Amino acid sequence: MRPFQYERAASPARAVSSADAGSKYHAGGTTLIDLMKLDVWRPERLIDISALKEPRMTRIERNGKALRIGSMVTMAALAGDEGVRRSCPVLTDSLWLAASAQLRNMARLGGNVLQMTRCSYYRDTSYDQCNKRAPGSGCAALDGSNRHHAILGTSDACIATYPGDWAQALIALDAVVEILGKDGPKSVPFATLHRQPGNRPDVETTLAAGDLITAFVIPDADWARSKYLKIRDRESYAFALTSAAVALRMDGDAVSDVRIGLGGVATVPWRATAAEAVLKNAALSEDTAQQAAEAAFAGANTLEHNAYKVELGKRTLVRALMDTAGMEA
Ligand SMILES: Cc1cc2nc3c(=O)[nH]c(=O)nc-3n(C[C@H](O)[C@H](O)[C@H](O)COP(=O)(O)OP(=O)(O)OC[C@H]3O[C@@H](n4cnc5c(N)ncnc54)[C@H](O)[C@@H]3O)c2cc1C
Ligand code: SF4
Predict the structure, then answer these.
(1) How far is the CA of 127 from the centre of ligand 2 (A)?
(2) Count of domains in the chain?
(3) How far apart are alpha carbons 20 and 29 in whole angstroms?
(4) pLDDT digits (tens, 9 = 90+) for 69-82
């Protein structure tokens, strides 16, 4: 690991004012320190925000249907919140199914949504070609091993999968991100936080230098009928091959409202709007769920090893919809 400066932030405002292009915030450190040890990230300075006690960053607050979750809340704390689990299980299930107990105790939700791809060419500096790590160098995954790579939102420059689980629930539920920036507080839709790779895969988010995520707001977190289904190589401690975050409101068999996020298949947290349009006001059945799944994956781009994700992704979504509705698939 290379030498770096370390400072512990005394307040959110101090953290933001001392941040610059060469610094990184340290929350739980489970992505950051990993990538520094691998020599993929080389920050000059770490600004440790893990001890910040600012209530708006550390609390889970309800206001009617709305939920405000501080960015310093641990994955474990939200996963274990019984009230949230009852009113909106997709928000807690997606965390229970992520990482390990140790990681969930350490990792904060702000860091969680900013975790990096698990593309092995990105994480291994012995590979020269990686446009995300070394802009303009090429992409080793295009002709290499791409079994875990994305089929939606890809570009000729990068096909890295966004690996997180919780983000799929956030994008499905129209979450808003509260940020403290150099010019003061601001809010952006979660759907605009991550950037598709295009020709600049090295630019992962729309955050400006020094932007500190303070909280996530879910304007309507009243989705008792919601679920996160994650398919992976082993049933514990593995990233999603495919996943679906589904929230449904039903009027009899008819779908009166539906939200869908897809994981493991796209370069960014993925909202399946075409699938939602198929289902809205339709009678839910295995047939309509299948039609929605076809719409969700209509734009998929596959390579040698990841074509299986189209069929697996469709089956994941169909099963998630049927399970959430309490119907047999
Ligand atoms: C072995 C392993 C298995 C895993 N499995 C899964 C899994 O199955 N599913 C899953 O979803 N995740 C998984 N993860 C990822 C894990 O969830 C993330 O590493 C963790 O959530 C990151 O949170 P952190 O607090 O440790 O972030 P850090 O490592 O501290 O930070 C991550 C990034 O976010 C930035 N950052 C942190 N907080 C803020 C903030 N408030 N504002 C602005 N920037 C900020 C940091 O500067 C850094 O760039 C796994 C990780 C490991 C190591
Ligand atoms: S898929 Fe993206 S992260 Fe992986 S090698 Fe290609 S450019 Fe790098």
Answers:
(1) 10
(2) 2
(3) 18
(4) 999 999 999 999 99
